[in-house]
Design the sequence.
């Protein structure tokens, strides 16, 4: 299937999905958006209040800040694909639960396959854990890691930086390095952090292919 058609198909499935309890409380599911041939895919955690109202990712305060971070490196939101690990809002913005992450995982995996981005930027720890189950965000943020052949860069969540001033310069520095890191995509070594030795952690990882 063509990438555009597959993304439309996924969005349609997500809109009516009842695979996990989050469908009970959602107003609109948020499949994600952006060009099907995007080089960069940002993956956040899950829809918040405004995203749930509008059916679009990162349209609240964290989204405004993401737009600013992109603008600082000369990029527009329309150039990148933005998705989340869960497509429906966890009530009261609580953390997504393991069974919800598991239920929603295949949609994200299909999006990654369809878009085949040069680089995946994870925003926050739930998104990072899909790719780097053994990593700690404080030690790996802003570093290019190859996970099963694909470049993954973990970053702090923009909402975390809004709440914790000390993270702002860190996330801004990490974004500033994005163009350079993407340029080095081919050279990055495979990360040992991507290969979990704990079998209990294995199912959380996306296959990426
Ligand atoms: N935070 C996220 O992780 N995703 C959104 O879409 C909005 C806020
Ligand atoms: Fe389906 Fe994902 Fe929404 Fe759960 S969060 S209902 S799995 S689309």
Sequence:
């Amino acid at each position: 299937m063509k990438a555009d058609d597959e993304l439309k198909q996924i969005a349609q499935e997500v809109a009516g999905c009842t695979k996990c309890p989050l469908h009970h409380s959602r107003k609109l599911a948020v499949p994600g958006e952006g060009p099907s041939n995007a080089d960069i895919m940002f993956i956040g955690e899950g829809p918040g209040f405004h995203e749930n109202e509008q059916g679009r990712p990162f349209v609240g305060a964290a989204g405004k800040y993401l737009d600013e971070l992109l603008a600082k490196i000369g990029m527009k939101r329309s150039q990148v694909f933005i998705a989340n690990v869960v497509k429906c809002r966890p009530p009261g913005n609580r953390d997504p639960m393991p069974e919800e992450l598991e239920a929603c995982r295949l949609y994200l995996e299909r999006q990654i396959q369809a878009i085949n981005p040069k680089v995946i930027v994870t925003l926050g720890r739930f998104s990072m854990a899909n790719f780097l189950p053994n990593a700690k965000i404080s030690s790996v943020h802003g570093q290019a890691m190859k996970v099963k052949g694909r470049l993954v860069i973990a970053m702090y969540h923009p909402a975390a930086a809004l709440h914790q001033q000390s993270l702002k310069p860190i996330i801004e520095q990490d974004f500033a390095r994005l163009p350079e890191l993407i340029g080095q995509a081919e050279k990055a070594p495979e990360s040992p952090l991507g290969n979990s030795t704990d079998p209990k952690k294995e199912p959380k990882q996306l296959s990426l292919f």
About this structure: Strands lie at 40-44, 81-84, 119-123, 144-147, 150-155. The chain has a mean pLDDT of 91. The chain has one domain: 3-184. The pocket of iron/sulfur cluster (ligand 2) is lined by residues 14, 17-20, 22-23, 29, 86-88, 100, 103-104 (CB under 6 Å).
